[in-house]
């Protein structure tokens, strides 16, 4: 299962789509599957965050900067006069205090002999929405969301010379290597993988610029931007997020057919629905529960596919193409 879990929002979205479809709840006959319209991957975090309330995604200003939290990506950060230091909060790293940082170190042109070398410290300010770290020539802005910790580099003025804009980044506490999605950062102590990706570069008019994120050395990164026609300032905004996939049940077989939906309750129990009849080593008809160590069936389950799950308090709602739930007539929806 991929961290973070966006299941509650996605389940509700699928459930509401199912219920609003014309004629969906009028017949007990099994209809042809009509999948809900998918949410584009790059919109998942923003869409899910609209449904979230809590302090798991937060920026808390402090006397010397700000504290950042993104529990869904298992990251915490501290914005100080040295920039943004991030800490992994996965269980294996808890208490180790392992920190890592990506810091803009120079601004110039890709093939130029000299660049603007940035001072190692600057001024930091924070609100509940963002923290900023300001040095001559660049402002780093830090924001948090379901997607992770976003690090914006705002280049205030066009560097002299010709060729691509080059922003050199210094990496501490991790090693970098190129990946298909951007750059993979491996933490020095635990070996946890952090994705540094979702790169988007825009100019002052909002126009997107062609850009790439490179890893020229294990301790250095670089952003290259075609800024020939750009209006300054230019904003560069990669994001830190979890890059690890972890098996939900190591050593136990998965489901024998599709899992279509996932939901989690306030106690951390995970519910899955789909077209399976066996999950792990347990017979479970289209719906099952994971308590952190083992699968269990929910009664006799459904007679056909479950496509959506949502948890509210102690109630679990299911939607799908079933006609019975636990042996009780339930035309496509049950509690």
In brief:
This protein is mainly β and 335 residues long. It has helices at residues 7-20, 44-49, and strands spanning 57-62, 65-70, 75-80, 83-88, 99-109, 116-117, 123-126, 131-135, 138-145, 148-155, 165-172, 174-179, 182-187, 193-197, 201-202, 211-217, 220-225, 234-236, 239-242, 259-264, 270-274, 278-279, 282-283, 287-290, 295-297, 306-312, 315-320, 324-325, 328-329, 333-334.
Low-confidence stretches: 1-36
- In this structure, how is the largest beta sheet organized? 10 strands, antiparallel
How many strand elements? 30
Shape: elongated
Q: On the 0-100 scale, what is the average pLDDT?
A: 85
Estimate percent helicity: under 10%
> Kindly, what is the distance between the CA atoms of the first and last residues, rounded to a whole number of angstroms?
25 Å
Q: Count of DSSP helices? A: 2
Please state roughly what percent of the residues sit in beta strands, choosing from under 5%, 5-15%, 15-25%, 25-35%, 35-45% or over 45%.
35-45%
Give the structural class: mainly beta
What is the rounded Rg?
A: 24 Å
Structure description:
The protein has 335 residues and is mostly beta strands. Strands 7, 8, 9, 10, 12, 13, 14, 15, 18 and 19 form a 10-stranded antiparallel β-sheet that branches. Strands 1, 2, 3, 4, 5, 6, 11, 16 and 17 form a 9-stranded antiparallel β-sheet that branches. The chain has a 4-stranded antiparallel β-sheet with strand order 20-21-24-25. The N terminus is likely disordered.
């Amino acid at each position: 299962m991929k961290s973070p879990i966006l299941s509650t929002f996605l389940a509700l979205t699928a459930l509401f789509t199912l219920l609003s479809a014309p004629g969906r709840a009028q017949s007990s006959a099994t209809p042809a599957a009509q999948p809900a319209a998918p949410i584009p991957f790059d919109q998942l975090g923003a869409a899910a965050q609209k449904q979230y309330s809590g302090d798991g995604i937060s920026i808390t200003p402090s006397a010397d900067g700000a504290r950042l939290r993104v529990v869904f990506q298992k990251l915490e950060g501290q914005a100080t006069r040295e920039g943004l230091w991030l800490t992994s909060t996965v269980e294996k790293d808890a208490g180790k205090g392992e920190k890592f940082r990506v810091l803009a170190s120079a601004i110039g042109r890709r093939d130029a002999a000299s660049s603007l070398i940035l001072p190692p410290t600057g001024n930091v300010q924070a609100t509940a929405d963002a923290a900023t770290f300001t040095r001559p020539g660049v402002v780093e802005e830090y924001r948090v969301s379901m997607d992770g910790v976003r690090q914006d580099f705002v280049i205030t003025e066009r560097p002299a010379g010709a060729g691509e804009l080059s922003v050199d980044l210094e990496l501490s506490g991790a090693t970098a290597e190129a990946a298909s999605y951007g750059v993979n950062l491996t933490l020095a102590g635990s070996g946890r993988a952090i994705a540094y990706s979702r790169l988007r570069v825009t100019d002052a008019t909002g126009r997107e610029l062609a850009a790439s994120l490179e890893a020229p050395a294990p301790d250095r990164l670089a952003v290259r931007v075609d800024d020939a026609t750009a209006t300054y300032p230019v904003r560069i905004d990669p994001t830190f997020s979890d890059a690890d996939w972890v098996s939900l049940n190591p050593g136990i077989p998965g489901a024998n057919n599709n899992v279509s939906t996932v939901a989690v309750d306030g106690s951390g129990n995970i519910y899955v629905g789909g077209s399976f009849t066996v999950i792990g080593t347990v017979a479970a008809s289209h719906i099952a529960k994971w308590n952190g160590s083992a699968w269990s069936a929910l009664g006799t389950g459904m007679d056909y596919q479950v496509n959506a799950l949502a948890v509210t308090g102690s109630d679990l709602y299911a939607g799908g193409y079933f006609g019975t739930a636990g042996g009780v007539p339930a035309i496509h929806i049950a509690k």
